[in-house]
Structures are given as C-alpha cells and as structure tokens.
C-alpha cells in the first residue's frame, strides 16, 4: 500500500500511531510518532492507514522483563539490539548496539562490525548469563553501506567451553526497519535480531579427536553395558595449565613415527588437524600464549595457519616475528586473557 506525506498511520506490531513525514527508498516511510516519541523509519507492510476521525489502536501490552535466576528464567537466546538515538529534529541519527545474553550460560564472545569490506570495530570478552552489554555506536548512514555484524560465541561450561557458534548478520534497510519491537532487556522498543536461539553447552573436550568407524562401534557396544560411575568433570586447574606445553611443532617428524608413510597430499591436512586440536585445548585451558612451529619451507603451512587464526575467536594477535629459538619459523599467538 502506498502512503502520502501527512497520512495518519499506526504501526501494526506495536499499535503506536503517527504521521507520515517523508518517503524513503524501498517502500519505506519516515513516521513521526505521536507524543513526542521522535521519528521512526518503517516499511509499508508494517503500517496501517488511519482515518482522520478514528482513534489509534491500543498499543500491545509490553512484555515484562524476565525475573529470577537460573531455571526461573526463559532463555531468549543470543540477541543483537540496535537502540535508535534521535537528533534534535526527531530523526534517527545513530544506533546504540547491544549484545544480549538471554541464556543460562556465561559466554565468551567476539563481535566485528563491518561496512562492505571495511572493518569498523572489533570487541571480545565474557558476558554473564541474562545480561546485556553496551557495544559501539552505529551511524545511520552505515545501513546503506552493506552493514554486517559477525558474531562468534562459545558457552562457558564445566570443563572449558562449548562448541563455536558463528553467524554473519547482513543488515539490510528493509529487513532492519521491520525488526522494530519491544526489547524487555532495554525496557523499550529497538531493532532486535535473535542470532542464536539456543547455544550448545557441551564441552569441546568431548569432541577433541574425530571419531573413526571403529570408535563408533566401540561406543555403541559400551552403551549396551551397565553404566559405570564417572568422575565429575572439573574446571582446568593451575596444574593442568602447568602441564600444558605451549609449543606445537608441526614438522611431520614431530607428529608421526614414520613420516614416509604419510602420502604427500595428506601432509597439510594432518598438520592442520593437529593445529585445530592444539588451539582448542589452549582455549579450554585459558592459556595466555602459544607458539606454532611451521618452519620456513615454501610458506604454504604458515599461510594456512595465519588464515585460520584470522577466524579463531579470542585471538588478541599473532605474529611471525624473529624468535631467538625458532627464528622466523614459528608464529606466536596471544589470546585474550
């Protein structure tokens, strides 16, 4: 449906009433909300035309914020909220970005905000259960610059962290303006995206090595036997960290007893499997830094490692600077502490 400047309309989702104050691109309109609530961009399909004499529909009852702790709460997942900030004319000028942890687990997160190929901001750290975190301001103009938000999350569980959850949210104007709704954690309306409705909270320690067919058969046989009491998992201790060797040598001679038995086309994949397991273990033990020895050679292994590290969450930085022991044949990786 087409609207004209001056038309009285209501927002279908919230019931709020206002007046069309301008036309935007892609069937989107600028609405001046009644009661001095400012201006709001909204798509045409989210609006209903009001007669001049008809009262605005009653607004929907606001959702009450969750109360209580732990099991008394209903999980709402991991969410991103864009809270509009208006200028003196009542137009949205920028948005305050929030990360909302609506799960019963503490999480470790890494978030990157980009427009096109340009990275605008990057943050990482922990966020406790059922809490929100104020992040960066997002200018209104970025909505027209291919805005994307990359979110990398792991649940903190007994014995380490859960599996990685990654999503790239591509924010497009029409989709963005139709996401305006009540956000209980903010106690008012904002643009809300549920990125992960649920988090898997199983320690990656249980998946450290890939399963083989023989192992699957063995597990199936064990399931048929009476279960035996297992010692409770415990979080990593100082002794665990002390026993961890922070240096991984990826030379084939350090990985297998008989290097000649490994086909040439399998060498790189074998090295990267060891790399993946080593980094996962370092993250679970919360070590500060590690060294990956890749040697000099033709540089293929080093390039593969650096490309992987670009996407590993909670890596503060990595470098291939000269080391007195390894020369230029190793990469130092420093994690967020």
Task: Please tell me about this protein's structure.
- Helix content is 16%, strand content 37%.
- It has 337 residues and is α+β, with helices and mostly antiparallel strands.
- The chain starts with 7 loop residues before the first strand and ends with a strand.
- This is Smr domain-containing protein.
- Residues 221-239 have a biased composition (Low complexity).
Secondary structure: elements and pairs:
Elements: E1 8-11, E2 17-23, E3 28-33, E4 39-43, E5 47-49, E6 77-86, E7 92-102, E8 107-115, E9 118-127, E10 131-139, E11 147-157, E12 160-161, E13 165-171, H1 173-177, E14 180-183, E15 188-196, H2 213-223, H3 238-243, E16 247-249, H4 252-255, H5 267-285, E17 289-293, H6 300-309, E18 315-319, E19 330-335
Parallel strand pairs: 16-17
Antiparallel strand pairs: 1-2, 1-5, 2-3, 3-4, 6-7, 6-15, 7-10, 8-9, 8-11, 11-12, 11-13, 14-15, 17-19, 18-19
Protein name: Smr domain-containing protein
Organism: Neolewinella xylanilytica
Biased composition (Low complexity): 221-239
């Amino acid at each position: 449906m087409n609207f004209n400047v001056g038309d009285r309309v209501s927002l279908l989702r919230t019931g709020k009433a206002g007046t069309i104050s301008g036309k935007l691109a892609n069937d989107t309109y600028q609405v001046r909300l009644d009661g001095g609530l400012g201006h709001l961009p909204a798509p045409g399909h989210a609006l209903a035309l009001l007669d001049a004499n008809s009262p605005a529909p009653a607004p929907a009852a606001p959702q009450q914020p969750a109360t209580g702790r732990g099991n008394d709460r209903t999980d709402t997942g991991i969410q991103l909220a864009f809270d509009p900030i208006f200028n003196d004319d009542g137009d949205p000028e920028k948005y305050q970005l929030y990360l909302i942890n609506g799960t019963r687990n503490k999480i470790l997160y890494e978030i990157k905000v980009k427009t096109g190929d340009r990275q605008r901001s990057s943050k990482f750290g922990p966020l406790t259960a059922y809490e929100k975190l104020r992040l960066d301001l997002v200018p209104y103009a970025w909505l027209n610059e291919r805005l994307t938000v990359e979110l990398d999350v792991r649940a903190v569980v007994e014995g380490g962290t859960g599996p990685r959850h990654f999503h790239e949210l591509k924010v497009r104007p029409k989709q963005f303006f139709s996401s305006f709704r009540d956000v209980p954690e903010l106690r008012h309306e904002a643009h809300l995206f549920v990125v992960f409705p649920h988090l898997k909270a199983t320690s990656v320690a249980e998946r450290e090595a890939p399963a083989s067919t023989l192992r699957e058969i063995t597990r199936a046989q064990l399931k048929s036997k009476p279960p035996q009491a297992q010692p409770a998992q415990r979080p990593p201790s100082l002794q665990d960290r002390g026993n961890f060797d922070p240096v991984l040598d990826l030379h084939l001679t350090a990985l297998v007893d008989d290097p000649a038995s490994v086909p040439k086309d399998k060498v790189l994949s074998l090295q990267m499997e060891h790399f993946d397991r080593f980094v996962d273990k370092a993250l679970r033990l919360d070590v500060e830094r590690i060294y990956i020895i890749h040697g000099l050679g033709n540089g293929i292994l080093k390039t593969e490692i650096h490309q992987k590290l670009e996407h590993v969450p909670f890596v503060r930085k990595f470098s291939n600077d000269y080391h007195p022991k390894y020369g230029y044949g190793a990469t130092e990786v420093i994690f967020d502490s």
